[in-house]
Design a protein that fits this description.
It contains 15 helices and ten strands. Helix 11 runs antiparallel to helix 12 and helix 14 packs across helix 15. The chain is elongated.
Amino acid sequence: MASLPKQSYHFLEQYEMPTAEHACSQPESRKQLGMTNPLDNPLPLESPTFFDLFTQTRSRMREVRSEYPARWRDVVSGTPANPKVSIMVITYNHEHYIRQAIDSILMQERDFEIEINVIDDCSTDNTQKIVRDYQQRHPGIINCYFNERNVGHIATQLNTFRGFQTLRGEYFALLEGDDYWTAPVKLKEQVEFLEDHSEYVACAHNTLKVFDDGRPSEHFLPFKAFRRERATIADLVTMAGTYHLSSIVYRNIFALNPPQCLASQYSCEVTINMLYGQFGDFYCIDKYMSAYRVHDNGVFSSRTIEDIWLFHLGGYRHFALFLGWHYWALFSRAVMGFSRYALLAHRRGVGPRLTMKSKLIFGSHLLISGMLYSITGVSTNRGRQYARWHIRSILSGIYRRLLSMLPDQIIHRYLAAELRMPFIRRFRLACKRLF
């Protein structure tokens, strides 16, 4: 089994004593609680700098690229005791929803072993009590990883990174404590597909959006305009192919040593998919097998559209550096399209009117990404095709303008010359084909 990264954690020392709002009761001993953790209980990273995330991520990515796909299966599943699938459940004050989330996992039809690792950010309600009760009833399956102090939703990715270090399975899935799976064959179908198709790194499906206020559920992701089963890294970066976190089963190619960019404040399903999309394509099963719950206390549900757009723009900036310059043409083209969409959304009736600050942010990103794409775009096949098309369109325009400026007498004499000397006509037609 791959060992955990050797890091010095001083996470708890940088926070003051929790207030009454965020304080947790002193935990009893793990033996009394009946908690069985197959791995050490990793702490969230202490607030990392971007430089720290960047250097560790680039180093870890080089290691994985050198061994994938030839050795990744041995690295992940070399220990017989490892489960086939690990499921990370991320919770905070989800006492009204956590039972449905865990039950939706336990109902899965399967002929393989699973583990459910619950990563709780020091909930102040009964979430931990409920999870401990489930763990005592399913001691070989459910493992509890509870923060002693609250990290907070602003830095929730630090807590999620902690969960990535507990995923021992050959495959893994992620589920937030207020979402749930709706089909008992979800895991079975996705694992079987990945077992039979090694060229794919993940398998997703359709997701429904359900509302706590009683509104009827509706289609959420993937975008209906995409209408394809297969998504490449280009589709994932441009967000043409977007899948909800609850719908995806991934190959665990990073094992217990994930790249630290997953602790970035901009890490979410969109950027996680970009990260794994480097190692294979995503496949989407055309079935609804998970639900994304919208309620007042949800982290993203309570954000404005403008805030969500700015969040994704920050994710583009950071993950373009994490993934490396090979993908800059894709990222610059994606930022161009995303910025243009945000700036014009209110005119099309699909978004709010941006504040002046947001207009400046998106406008500057549009300008800079355009210049970057003009430099990096020609390094790709599509970029070279675009450059050739652009040059040909310029030359064609010049040709038509020059032709319109010629007097009619010259044109008539030229056509008469073509009749006498056919090779002149062949030369003109050859030039026209170039344009």
